[in-house]
């Protein structure tokens, strides 16, 4: 019995593959490497001593995807494959709708054809739009996303809810990630953004590495304790463990269920900078810049539902996220 990880060569997928293999699962990866390296599956095998077979394919290619199901007894899928750059989605919305929606629809059709009934989906806290209050819990309304990327996640959640309503045998878990950061402590896996990083942590590590001159802090006039934006940063290894729990949950659960995957604690940009400096004994030069369009002042997760129903809580500190991020940056130069 195997678990298929679409997008499994990516940042979160690769860390989840290590977690599943270490827990005794058999995994199969499928990825077109549009945002990852073909080196990753070998590193997963190096870290676990177990096989991580990879099918280089576009999930939208039904014939290619069927081959995976023909050659492996796939009994669950974790669907990581998708484009995720908010800014790019605004410039190229059709690319995002085509890629993220078509991949999901093709995957669902092939899963049905091969009687595969368990699907874990990489959703995002962005589906909450501008929440009426924080912390955000799963009963709060979704919608009002500020960009096409977020809207693809919202639409895919709706597609999965409808598919689960039509097929009582289907088990769907929607995992709403908050802000994944960090890297595997070995320094062999991590996130390697193309070009100028949009996200805070990879930008900080590139400043620390001398690749960028300084960090621009986007706004210090928000209604937050120190005026800078507040987010729920979660270590990618904690996130990976959450997928293991979700897979177990989906074995006995039918229908569709959403879970926030976050720490339940919000940290400001300056909190992250100071934690990074403490954890790594470095100074991060920064400049206070204007707010970034589309940014919300503050949001973080109410993580109680995942604790209660998935028996999962995060374990790693902000300092560990910073130390592991910096180790990866040094290794991947
Ligand atoms: P990532 O880009 O590192 O991984 C995505 C992987 O999917 C990449 O390896 C890419 O090559 C592959 N891929 C994309 N489209 C594909 C297609 N059509 N066919 C085959 N492979 C395809 O991103 P990540 O950070 O690991 O995110 C994984 C998932 O989690 C994404 O769906 C993303 O939207 C979601 N997510 C990420 C974050 C975050 O901040 N990283 C937050 C919330 C949700
Ligand atoms: C975090 C904080 C910025 C960079 C994004 C996506 C979201 C999800 C997670 C996919 C904010 C500040 C950042 C910088 C800064 N991805 N910042 N200087 O925007 O919360 O979420 O990634 O699902 O969809 O929107 O994360 O890391 O970009 O920003 O001051 O150079 O850091 O203003 O307050 P964000 P981020």
How does this model look, in words?
It is a single chain. The chain is an alpha/beta fold. It has helices spanning 11-22, 40-48, 62-71, 86-91, 93-113, 148-166, 200-208, 236-252, 269-280, 304-310, 318-332; strands at residues 2-6, 26-31, 54-56, 74-79, 118-124, 171-177, 179-181, 215-218, 230-231, 233-235, 255-261, 267-268, 286-289. It has a seven-stranded parallel sheet with strand order 3-2-1-4-5-6-11, with helices on both faces. It has a two-stranded parallel sheet with strand order 7-10. Helix 1 runs parallel beside helix 2, helix 5 (93-113) runs parallel beside helix 6 (148-166) and helix 9 (269-280) packs across helix 11 (318-332). The two termini are 37 Å apart. The mean pLDDT is 97. The chain binds nicotinamide-adenine-dinucleotide and UDP-4-deoxy-4-formamido-beta-L-arabinopyranose.
